[in-house]
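Reader question, answered in our methods column.
A reader sent in the components of a multi-part assembly and asked whether the whole thing could be modeled at once rather than chain by chain. We filled in our standard form and ran it. Here is what they sent:
COMPLEX SIZE: three components
ENTRIES:
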Amino acid sequence: MTARVLWRKSLSAVMLSLTGVCAFVAVSVLFLILGYLVIHGGRSVNWDFFTKLPAPVGELGGGMANAILGSAKLLALASLIGVPLGLLGGVYLAEFGGHAAGFVVRYAADLLNGTPSIVIGIFAYALLVLPFKHFSTFSGAFALGIMMIPITLRSTEEFLRAVPLALREGALALGASKWRAILTVVLPAAYRGILTAVLLALARVAGETAPLLFTAFSNRFWSPGWNQPTASLPVMIYTYAVSPYDDWHRQAWAAGLLLLGLVLVINLLARVVLSRGAAVRRS
Amino acid sequence: MPSTANSSVSLAAGLPASPGRELAGEHSMRMNISKLNFYYGEKQVLFDISLGVAAARLTALIGPSGCGKSTLLRTLNRMHETVRNARLDGEITLDGQSIFLQDVTQFRRRIGMVFQKPNPFPKSIFDNVAYGPRINGASRPLSDVVEASLRRAALWDEVKDQLHKSAYELSGGQQQRLCIARALAVEPEVLLLDEPCSALDPISTAKVEELLVQLKSSCTIVIVTHNMQQAARVSDFTAFLLNGSLIEFSPTPQLFTTPADSRTEAYITGRFG
Amino acid sequence: MERHFEKDLNELKERLLWMGGLAERAVHQAVQAVLNADEQIAQRVLAEETAINEMQIEIDDRVVHVLALHQLMAVDLRFVLAVSRINNDLERIGDQAVNIAQAAQRILRHPRVKPYVDLPKMSEIVEGMMRDALNALVRRDVVLAQSVLSRDDQVDNLRDQIFRELLTYMMGDSSVVYPAFDLILMAKNLERIGDHATNIAEDVIYFVQGRDVRHPAVDRR
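And here is the structure of the entire assembly that came back:
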């Protein structure tokens, strides 16, 4: 009897430490990456990094101002494409979609969500680069926007479904049409959740490199308008990291640090938005 | 009145007249339900219901859970149409006009509804009450409508200094009175209430009940309640439903003292249901 | 917060007091018929009894409705129960007044047996007890109700004195047996009315304080 108890106790202790160690490893990976980025790239994050164009090959210094602006433009345009489509699609799914149509849309969105990003890149390349015979900000944003659609759509649907039926009925009973009820009551009730979803989608595509390689491509100079190839942080990291120059390596680390910092901030923002919303709902 | 035919003095002079017992048939009807059958898919939940809703009176629908009283209430503002595969036959009229021939959003503006759980919108107190007038185009200044509605719902004094706070910061009882104010803001001709006190504590319940008694002079009210004492306290007419059929419909004092049907008696004396 | 059933309770009280007024008036008139030898007043008492009976039924109806529709508690519940009992006592008082009025009609067929001394005194006390019992109800005045209870002994004493006196007359002169017997009945009726007034006062104390003072000998735990 005591032997069994001893066996059970030691097994429990072993499993507990095992799971604890795994959890620790999982968390420490993030901190390892962060630490690595800070050590290697921290020194390069300076005023020049944010304000200067890349230095010509062989020269020290220079910055990534064009890539930062390029990423911002790409993400902004991608949101303009992906968010409305995802949002309205989510509204359709949650409020109007019948059984069959709902199933098809939902399934398609889930498949799209699982589609490798490089495939989406090829699609954008075939659609918007080949016909015009040059890379462009627009084609890159298109690729990223497509990637945002399924996340936005499914989260919008989930958050809309979480809005109590009683709220919809309350609006309908006051003589609101269905569209009016959705626009003035249901969406406002769910907007924090939807905003969170949009932010998470944004964080997800902010680091995408593959689809940009053959859509937005890259650029060592400013990229005016939407119709020229543009630099972006992920692609710059890729280009600089595989280059033979130490200074570029350091700048690649710095760009990585910036990108990770951006994702962290967006995640944090999403968390704050959501928790505030929940607090109001509960009280 | 005491009969004083034989005496030289009127023995009852100066005494206020006693209200006679009201009969449903003697009243002008605001709404009429006739031969209503209701189905969810293949399942029939209401059977051949006919009943009148008297103007400026409070009509209560009582009965055990699942007897169809809420379904019946929801047909009165066509809220059942939001449910897939709900279907009905029969006729319901408002002031003699079939409610099914009217534009549904226009029609619903004439019928206010208050739900089981308080369902304020995630907006300020002011915006909650102003919601109906806003979408319907208010003829008076919004702040007047909001104040008047909150006063009618006996909530004004409690919230007048915090109109721009979120409605979620109110207590449950206040939220329910806010929902009543929101419904009153569009000046409905009929007010439907679906177990409005089931989520409230006794004091809040009493407040809502007093409010209903005051409101019925200016508004026709139909209330569904699983609390038959509540029906007894506030209503003028009571309908007892069982398994989707109307068993008895009488003036409330009569139904609760001398019910005509033995099933009604068994229910109100707590012997089943 | 004022509850809407308070309106019903007030109407109930109003009607009970109205009925009390009718009963008081009946007693007063019936006695006056004898004292003033006025046959007409006696007839009026008989005619007006219907009003009291109708009021009893209306009050009963209202009591049933209030009990059925509003779940009354504590002082409200005791009030309605007290009203129900007082209603009965008032109706019985009305019956006693009718008895007196009928006796009056018989008495008036004979010459007066004797000058009335104790009878007016007794009726004055009894009418005062009725009035005070109902006033105590209105004012929720327990002290006034107690004073009604204490007057019951005076009434009993007066009744005994009237019995003795009239018996003496009957033994002395057999021709006065009929009217004297009716006068004895009348004293008995008045004494019963005093008892009903006492009951009303006890109900008032019960309503106000929740205390049952009817039978001190009964042990309540």
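What stands out: The longest strand of chain B covers residues 29-40. Chain B touches chain A through 28 residues (CB under 8 Å).
Send us your own complexes using the same form.
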